[in-house]
What does this fold into?
Amino acid sequence: MSLRIESLSFAYSNDSPVFSDVSLMVEPGEVLTILGSNGTGKSTLLNCIANQYKPLSGEVFVCEKKVSKMAAAEFSQHIAYIPQMHYPIFSFSVIDVVVMGRMAYIGPVGSPKKKDFDIAFEMLELMNVSHLAHKSYLEISGGERQMILFAQALTQQPKYLILDEPTSHLDFGNQIRCLQIIQRMANKGIGVLISSHFPDHSLMFDHKVCLLYKGGLIASGEA
It folds into this structure.
């Protein structure tokens, strides 16, 4: 049931590899933090794991299935991915943004049903932002948007959650709140893979950590 990354390498075009031979494993209910300074390839690595980029070599497995062979709907039922940057374009309401996380179950031509909205509202309540449900997503703060994206990811009911620098655009109070929510997700049995350049954040989880430096993992172990 693990999320397993085996010997992953990636390069842009004919450039030298951004990273090479990276192997990781995340178990259900576990938080694995990838630490590294800006520019070390953390975001690129997560994009490969989340099936956004095609790796040069290696494979990603979730529940013993190759991610590269999965249809989008099946992938979304296993893994939810929250990128570091999110630029909204349309003025959807917050509840509409959150219920979009149910698309893996609704299908490309279906419409959300009461069950889908019930799950979306439940996740908003879990994030303590249910009061924003009918506000425009464009009119809420950056910290609030982060909570909404968490709620959207959880409506997918994934087994694993991939988070790229989830605290990078938050003030200190919201950083702590974000980390507490991540721990709460792990307590519910969701495996979490997170990138960060703040070592103290990994210590708050007391789970596993690895260090990405100059294109490879140089250390891994207990936080």
Summary: The CA atoms of residues 93 and 134 lie 5 Å apart. The chain has eight helices and ten strands. The first strand starts at residue 3 and ends at 10.
